[in-house]
Amino acid sequence: DVKVTQSSRYLVKRTGEKVFLECVQDMDHENMFWYRQDPGLGLRLIYFSYDVKMKEKGDIPEGYSVSREKKERFSLILESASTNQTSMYLCASSFASYYGYTFGSGTRLTVV
Amino acid sequence: GESVGLHLPTLSVQEGDNSIINCAYSNSASDYFIWYKQESGKGPQFIIDIRSNMDKRQGQRVTVLLNKTVKHLSLQIAATQPGDSAVYFCAETSNKLSFGAGTTVTVRA
Question: What are the extents of the domains in chain B?
Answer without folding.
Answer: 4-108
